[in-house]
Amino acid sequence: MALLKKYRFAVFSLAVLMTLFFFDTPQGITALQVTAFSVKEMLMIVPPIFILLGLLDVWVPRETMVRFMGTGSGVKGVLLAFFLGSAAAGPLYGAFPIAAVLMKKGTSYRNILIFLGAWSTTKIPLLLFEMTSMGVPFMLARLLVNIPGILFIAWLVDFLISDDERQRLYLNAEHLAR
Fold first, then answer.
1. Where are the alpha helices (DSSP H) in 88-135?
2. pTM summary value
3. Position 65 in a domain
């Protein structure tokens, strides 16, 4: 029963897919093809991310991460968080396991938020696509809005979150990163 409760969303989605397949077979086949494509794509992205996470966890000592991205890292930590997030490839769901390992290694909460913001909005492949399809002025205008926005949101959330909540998040991240 606990297993069913844990995977209730997947079971519900499967039931909806089967119902759709029963009532509208062509639409059900299309939905099944889209689902299979998404699962295949995810299986091609997630294993390399977890391999890199394992290497990061083993090769980078906690003291090094605290020095470069911890609470006292200042501008150096912010720039490194931006660089790591911008240089990343893959969908946003790949950033969250990395963020959990960074939290386990002692990265400040603000730098975690900057990393996630950079991953979602300033990735280098995205910038290259924008530059070629929409032009340099658009790309630069978006960056000039997004970068201060990421910094402001990271600062605001870091300021508003209580120490108890921050501690709970770090404990959850450490539990998940095992």
1. 95-104, 109-121, 124-134
2. 0.78
3. yes
Same domain, 162 and 92: yes
Would you mind telling me the total number of residues written for the chain in this entry? 178
Angle between helix 8-23 and 25-59 (nearest 10): 160
Contact by Cβ (8 Å): 128, 89: no
pLDDT value at residue 178:
64
Do 89 and 29 share a structural domain? no
Contact indicator for 112, 80 with CB cutoff of 8 Å: no
Q: Mean pLDDT for each 10-residue chunk of the chain (178 residues)? A: 83 89 90 90 82 79 85 92 88 87 91 95 89 94 95 96 93 77
pLDDT at residue 55, as a whole number: 80
Residue range of the domain that includes 104: 60-176
Between the alpha carbon of residue 14 and those of residues 19, 31, 177, the distances in Å are: 9, 11, 28
Distance of CA 114 to the CA centre of its chain: 11
Please indicate, yes or no, whether residues 115 and 154 belong to a single structural domain of this protein.
yes
